[in-house]
Description:
Blueprint: E1 24-27, H1 36-39, E2 43-48, E3 54-61, E4 65-74, E5 77-86, E6 97-107, E7 117-129, E8 135-149
Parallel strand pairs: 2-8
Antiparallel strand pairs: 1-8, 2-3, 3-4, 4-5, 6-7, 7-8
Amino acid sequence: MDTQKELMTFPHQDTALKRSSMVSILTGDLHSRQDSLNSNFNTCTAYLSKSDTLHINIGLHSLFGGSGFIISCYDSRFYTEGYEYSDVVYSGTDKPQHWVIRQELTLDRAKYKAGDSLYGYINFKAAERNELGDTVIYSGKGNFRAKVKKSRFDN
């Protein structure tokens, strides 16, 4: 193993993406700026879906899991949803449910097309009841930027 190069290092998982987010993301009830150092590792990607919905994904991802939130914007409306995933498979039977407690989004323009630069600010709090029946509180606050891609898998 010492002679083999590591496939993907944790903080540098995607060298094509610039660290484009200063959004602090917390799971739990309290929100403070104490996690500002960790927010430097979040990436921000933005892409359009076939229904002209703009999706903004802010979070931290690795080979074994990730967490963050996704903002979906369509026709001057938006919805924020937190997520966590891992390589551990659960046999839960409940379908996850999401609730927005509060959300505030500011974008630099109303409409985007592929290739546009996007700048924004988010402040939100949301709750999720996951597959295991546990309630998880997500909150996020800060500035972000991204270049809008025409699809999720467009590099």
